[in-house]
């Protein structure tokens, strides 16, 4: 697969400060561990992003699980162009999927992967962020085994 250009995997949430950037970091880490980082490129964006830094509690949760969070990263607003360029898109909720599925045929809600949605930890406790990151880890493992290794 290395001769082809990398497949673009995109994670979507609301503000792109908690769930989707954590999913992106976790996904990239798994790609590197499995030596697939040349075959796939991961990114994330938000439906209502406002150029904010990744949440401090997101960084802490990632570090607790052994990942290296970005030192500085501004949230990105999702555009139709981003959706058109993505090969596969994962949203955190079914509602988010419903909002964007007309722009890309390969949109999946995490609930289709895990059996449940990823709740937004924004403004909640550090434990809520950690629980979110653990759920995202489970989702990324299933995504890699179900969607990527086909």
CATH superfamily: Response regulator
Question: Low-confidence runs (pLDDT<50, min 5 residues)?
Answer: none
Q: Any idea what the radius of gyration is?
A: 14 Å
Strand content: 5-15%
In the sheet with the most strands, the strands line up as: 2-1-3-4
Structural class: alpha/beta
CATH architecture: 3-Layer(aba) Sandwich
Strand runs, count: 4
Note the quaternary state here. Answer: single chain
- How many structurally independent domains? 1
The end-to-end distance, rounded to whole angstroms, is 12 Å
Q: Report the major sheet.
A: 4 strands, parallel
The portion of residues assigned to helices is 40-55%
Write the CATH fold name: Rossmann fold
Report the CATH C-level class. Alpha Beta
Please describe what this structure looks like.
This protein is an alpha/beta fold and 150 residues long. It has six helices and four strands. The protein is globular, with a radius of gyration of 14 Å.
């Amino acid at each position: 697969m290395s001769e082809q250009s990398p497949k673009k995997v995109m994670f979507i949430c609301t503000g792109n400060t908690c769930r989707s950037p954590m999913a992106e970091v976790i996904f990239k880490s798994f790609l590197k561990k499995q030596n697939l980082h040349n075959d796939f490129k991961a990114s994330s964006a938000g439906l209502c992003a406002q150029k904010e830094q990744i949440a401090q509690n997101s960084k802490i949760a990632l570090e607790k699980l052994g990942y290296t969070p970005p030192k500085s990263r501004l949230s990105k607003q999702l555009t139709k162009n981003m959706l058109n360029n993505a090969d596969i898109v994962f949203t955190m909720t079914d509602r988010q999927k419903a909002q964007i599925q007309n722009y890309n045929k390969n949109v999946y809600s995490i609930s289709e992967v895990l059996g449940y949605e990823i709740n937004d930890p924004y403004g909640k406790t550090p434990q809520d962020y950690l629980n979110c990151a653990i759920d995202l880890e489970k989702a990324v493992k299933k995504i890699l085994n179900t969607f990527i290794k086909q």
